[in-house]
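Z., the sequence and structure:
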Amino acid sequence: MENLASFTPISLPTIMLEHMLKIVSIKDGKHGLAYDFLLTKVFKHFGIKALKRTMSMMKHMFTMTTLDECECVPKMGGVGSNSMISSMIYAQEKATEEINKLTLLLAQKDSELAILKAELQQAKQWKEETVTIAGPPIGSGKEVNAVTQNPGYVVLDPLPGTGQERAFCTVPGVCYYRTLTCPTECPQRKPKQNKKQKGCYVDCSSKCEATCKWRLPRCDGYGALCYDPRFVGGDGVMFYFHGAKETDFAIVSDDNLHINAHLIGTRPQGRKRDYTWVQTLSVMFDTHTLVLGAKKVSHWDEKVDALIVQWNGETVNVPTDGDAEWSINTAERQVVVERTDDINSVRLTVSGLLQLDVKVVPIGEKENKVHNYQLPADDAFAHLETQFKFFNLSKDVEGILGKTYQPGYVSSVKRGVPMPIMGGEDKYQTTSLHSAICKKCRFQRPSSVASA
């Protein structure tokens, strides 16, 4: 009555529904229904046949609590609701909201699955095409334009609009069957302007990432060979190797790969050993030999290309425009030499075996004075700065650099000194640049050998 007296609005339909719910007797199996006469008229109006009426006596008194529970008046004691009907409606709304969220998530997953299936199909097609173009007969020397086969992924179509290249990882692990997209800062793995743009480096290993990097040798990185010659081994330990000028040494010797280095140098008056640098590398695999070297130049000119590339004894011209690469498919694998700068810098990739960054540099006038090399005025001593990355080396790999990649290898060089020296000249010296014979060498040519 107080609500009527204070003219407080009351929702009569809500009171009726709450009242009907309150007087239902579930315990006795009786379902007395309030407002039966009113409901009978409603049922008859809509043609609903009512069953025989059963008398049931259920009493329920209306109080302020009743009005409060059915939210017919402002709640006593603050916010919230005790109404069973309101609770059911709220629960239904929440359930509907969750269903909508799950439906949207499922649609997104379906979309991702469709994209993954398309990429997988593209990867399978790529592999089939690779098998189809296995290459010309051994020694045919036919040049082809092809994308470098990088172990661990296949290249997918770039993103429309941005041109960002994508790679589909095929190496089992955390990155297996994932697609990596190159960053917008370096959308291409092989940018045309190498000097001004970084390239996209795809790593499908445990890092599972695509990052931007300069495509030039890092003399302080793993697998580096620079200066007089200074190595950084596969174990990360830096060391120097004292050879002799005009000699050749096995850098790497494995079952299916052998790399020799030819040293040039000079010996100033009163010095006990030569200063040496790597002038040429001979990379031997299967029946083939690829040579990367620096030309002998009297005066260094940054505008002149001093790089030498030879394939099976024949000089190769690596283009400076277009894709700026030379490629060949053998019966066993693909070989690509691509420029990573306008001149004097290239990357060699031998599929399944090796990636090698090479840069030709001189001994500058300042460097000559600081180290007291006493170089002749008519020789710039152009040499190579290099960094190796190997694929599928055996556990018994040998060579000055190669042995540092053996499992469990512990370096014998003295730590904490300015120039830690690695010995072994007698173990790894070969008779010529193209010889794979030394005391520790493992590589053996197949029966049919291409001319070198």
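The two ends are 112 Å apart (CA to CA). Residues 127 and 335 are 17 Å apart (CA to CA).

Let me know what you think.
H.
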